[in-house]
Design goal:
The protein is 39% helix and 26% strand. By secondary structure, it is of the alpha/beta class. The chain starts with a strand and ends with a helix.
Length: 317
Amino acid sequence: MTSKAISAHGLRKSYGDKTVLDGIDLDVEQGTIFSLLGPNGAGKTTTVQILSTLISADAGQIQVAGHDLAVDAQKVRAAIGVTGQFSAVDGLITGEENMLLMADLHHLPKAQGRRVAAELLERFDLTEAAKKPASTYSGGMKRRLDIAMTLVGSPRIIFLDEPTTGLDPRSRHTMWGIIRELVRDGVTVLLTTQYLEEADQLADRIAVLHDGKIAAEGTADELKRIVPGGHIRLRFTDPETYRRAAALQAATRDDDALTLQIPSDGSQRELRSLLGRLDTAGIEADELTVHTPDLDDVFFALTATTAHTDQIKETVR
C-alpha cells in the first residue's frame, strides 16, 4: 500500500470552453489534513467531485486509498466519505433516523446500525436532539450530523468541501476540533476552504488553487516565507545603543521610536545570525519581535497576477 492516501497527476476538467482544472498535481499523505485553499470558482469543489468519483476527469492519473480511480471506482467509494458544501441532512426526519438511513445504505445489520448510530450521535453531542426533526437543528448541529453520517461507513479518507461555510465562530471552532479528532483516529482529511485562518489552523499542507492551477503548495510556514515583508523589529530605550545597532545592521530606522526593522524570512537561522552579531558587539535590544506574512498576504500575492504567481512558484521549487 502506498503511503499516499490520494495521488492525482495531470488532473484536467473543462466544461465547454471553460477550463476548470488545468493539469493540477496533488499528493496527500495518509493520516494528515490537506487543504485546498482558494476563492469561489477556483476549482476546489470540482477537484473533490472528481476524487470522490462523483464526476469524471477529462485527463489525469488518480489513485485514492491505493486504488486506481479509473478501474476501481467502487473500491474507492468504499474507502471514502464526503461532506459537501450543502448539508445532506434530511430535515423532515429526526437526527437518529438520518443516521439509521445511512446505516441502511451501507448495508449494516439493523442491530449494528443502531449501535453505530447511537455511538456517533453521542460522539458528536447530538444524543439529546436525536429524536427531534433535523429541521430544528442549528447550522452547527446540522454540520455535525452531516459528518456523523459520513462516518457510518468508517471511511479511511474524508473529503470535507467547505465544511464551516455559514457557521458562526463558535461552531466553526467546534468543527475544527472534530476534524482534528478524526485525524488523531488515523483518518485522512482533504479539506477545501476559502477561510485563510481555517487552513492555517488545521492543515499539515496547503495548496493554493487559482484559476484551475496550483499556485503554490507547502506548509503554512513555508508559504508565509515566500512572500516578502517579513522582518525582525528591534526596540531600544538607550539612544546610544540604538545608534550602535543601526550602524551594525542594514535596517529601516525609526529614530523617534528608537526601533530598527530588519528584513527577514522569519527563519531560526536568520534570527540566530542576527542575535550572534548583536551579542558579539555587546548590544542588547530591549524588545525583539519577529513579524512574518500571514496567509492573507500569501493568498493575495499568489492570486494577484499570473507573472507574480509564476515567480512565486519558482521560489517554492
